[in-house]
């Protein structure tokens, strides 16, 4: 049975990210876009577990890694920040790994 990311050590998480990165590259080379997207999302989640959620504060606005969006955090729930993208009105949750740390 596989471990959850929350149960992995930093070393295990980094190995998992490296393996997912290799799988993503292979999927991309083979033109398997949906499989590539799955590996990308898994990498984003694994990276969130390498970060400290206490460093992200509700009420603060963060630039997102896509550099096109900004995200206002309303509240934190584990490794997810819940809030609003680009001043929108729809509440959404994003892994903290997609937010640039200030």
Outline the structure in words.
The protein is an alpha+beta fold. It folds into two domains: 5-48, Hypothetical protein YfhH domain (Helix Hairpins, Orthogonal Bundle); 53-98, SH3 type barrels. 35% of the residues lie in helices and 21% in strands. It is built from two helices and four strands; from the N terminus they run H-H-E-E-E-E. The model has no long low-confidence stretch (mean pLDDT 94).
Salient structural properties:
102 residues; alpha+beta; Helix Hairpins; 2 domains
> What's the total helix number?
2
**Can you identify the CATH superfamily of the largest domain?**
Hypothetical protein YfhH like domains
Molecular shape = globular
Portion in beta strands? 15-25%
Say how many strands there are: 4
If classified by CATH, what would the architecture of the largest domain be?
A: Roll
Q: Give the mean pLDDT.
A: 94
- Note the gap between the termini: 37 Å
Question: Could you say what the CATH topology of the largest domain is called?
Answer: SH3 type barrels
Low-confidence stretches: none
Secondary-structure element string: HHEEEE
Domains counted in the coordinates: how many?
Answer: 2
Range of helix content: 25-40%
CATH class of the largest domain: Mainly Beta
């Amino acid at each position: 049975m596989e471990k959850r990311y929350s149960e992995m050590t930093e070393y295990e998480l980094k190995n998992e990210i490296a393996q997912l990165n290799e799988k993503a590259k292979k999927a991309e080379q083979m033109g398997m876009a949906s499989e590539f997207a799955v590996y990308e999302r898994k990498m984003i989640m694994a990276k969130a577990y390498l970060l400290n959620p206490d460093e992200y504060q509700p009420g603060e606005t963060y630039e997102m890694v896509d550099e096109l969006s900004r995200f206002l955090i309303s509240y934190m729930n584990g490794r997810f920040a819940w809030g609003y993208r680009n001043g929108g009105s729809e509440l959404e949750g994003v892994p903290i790994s997609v937010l640039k740390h200030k």
